[in-house]
């Protein structure tokens, strides 16, 4: 049986690929790594909407009260930092750069800090009501960090895919 990819060499029974094609396949972003890739892409696509909604809320608050709160200024700063970090993490991830571990750990920790700023701080400072959507929004970054940080720190696959 020939390799299903190159059709030139004898294929291994388990994968259907020859040894050289298996080596190339191990270096691709596939399998479980599609999940963080999808998360990065979705986050990039959601950044403009987040800015639009938050800036709209700030402008609405400014029209009603005539002031811009420190919380709003901090929120814009947190959103800018998150946007830069998301773009940096995407660059490292899709270019398969060597420092991906540090960048993605920082990305996921910043996601938790982002959630704390926009979910927990309003409830703590202003007594905002936390509903089911807020709890869901709080759990996703925490679960993501709890799953992906150890994966990127300890997985051997990261060495073969990213650390060339």
From TrEMBL:
Family matches, as InterPro entries: DUF2569
Record flagged with keyword Transmembrane helix: yes
Chain segments annotated as transmembrane: 32-62, 68-94, 106-126, 138-154
Pfam entry (one): DUF2569
Keywords: Membrane, Transmembrane, Transmembrane helix
Name of protein: DUF2569 domain-containing protein
Species for this entry: Enterobacter lignolyticus (strain SCF1)
Native organism taxonomy: Bacteria, Pseudomonadati, Pseudomonadota, Gammaproteobacteria, Enterobacterales
């Amino acid at each position: 049986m020939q390799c299903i990819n190159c059709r030139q060499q004898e294929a291994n029974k388990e994968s259907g690929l020859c040894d050289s094609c298996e080596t190339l396949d191990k270096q691709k972003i596939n399998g479980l790594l599609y999940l963080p890739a999808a998360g990065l892409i979705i986050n990039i696509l959601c950044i403009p909407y987040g800015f639009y909604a938050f800036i709209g809320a700030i402008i609405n608050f400014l029209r009603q009260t005539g002031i811009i709160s420190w919380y709003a200024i901090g929120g814009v700063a947190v959103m800018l930092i998150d946007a830069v970090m998301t773009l940096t993490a995407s660059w490292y991830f899709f270019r398969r750069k060597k420092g991906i571990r540090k960048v993605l750990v920082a990305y996921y920790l910043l996601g938790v800090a982002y959630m704390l700023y926009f979910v927990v701080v309003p409830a703590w400072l202003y007594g905002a009501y936390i509903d089911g959507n807020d709890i869901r929004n709080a759990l996703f970054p925490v679960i993501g960090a709890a799953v992906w940080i150890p994966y990127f720190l300890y997985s051997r696959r990261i060495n073969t895919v990213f650390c060339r």
